Amino acid sequence: MESLDSCGKPVEKGSYVIYNGTGTIGKVVDIKSEDSGSWIKVDKTDLWYKSQFIQAINKSEEAKIGSKRRKEDAMDKVKKMKKTIGEDVDMSTELCDGGG
């Protein structure tokens, strides 16, 4: 049985996919078919995803999306840190001089 993604494209071992629910991107390491449908195992999470909820992408898209996601994750971490602190911290007067 051929495994198809949410757009009807075939999915094979070694191809790159994105899980629509969380945006997880990874390489297909295994595929299994059952009466309920096809399942795709992704290397990044080592989890099985139902093929109807994933989308096949090419390797260049994987790199582009992954880079954008890392930037967004970094920005989210900074925002959370600022919320925890409760204010912006100005360290310009608290820095040590490294003079000699």
CATH topology: SH3 type barrels
Give the CATH architecture: Roll
Number of structurally distinct domains: 1
Question: Which H/E pattern describes the elements?
Answer: EEEEEH
The CATH class label is: Mainly Beta
What's the mean pLDDT score?
Answer: 81
Poorly predicted ranges (pLDDT <50, ≥5 residues)? none
Bulk shape: elongated
| Estimated helix fraction | 25-40%
Beta-strand level of the residues, as a percent range? 25-35%
| Separate helix tally | 1
Judged by helices, strands and strand pairing, the structural class is alpha+beta
Rg over C-alpha atoms, rounded to the nearest angstrom: 21 Å
Biggest sheet record: 5 strands, antiparallel
Distance between the termini: 71 Å
Lateral arrangement of strands in the main beta sheet = 4-3-2-1-5
- SS elements, strand count: 5
Characterise this structure.
The structure is a single chain. With 100 residues, the protein is of the alpha+beta class. The protein has a single domain (16-85), classed as SH3 type barrels, CATH 2.30.30. Helix content is 27%, strand content 28%. It has a five-stranded antiparallel sheet with strand order 4-3-2-1-5.
Tags for this model:
single chain, SH3 type barrels, 5 strands, 100 residues, elongated, alpha+beta
Give a quick rundown of the structure.
With 100 residues, the chain is an alpha+beta fold. It has one helix at residues 59-85; strands at residues 16-19, 25-34, 37-42, 47-50, 54-57.
Topology at a glance:
Elements: E1 16-19, E2 25-34, E3 37-42, E4 47-50, E5 54-57, H1 59-85
Antiparallel strand pairs: 1-2, 1-5, 2-3, 3-4
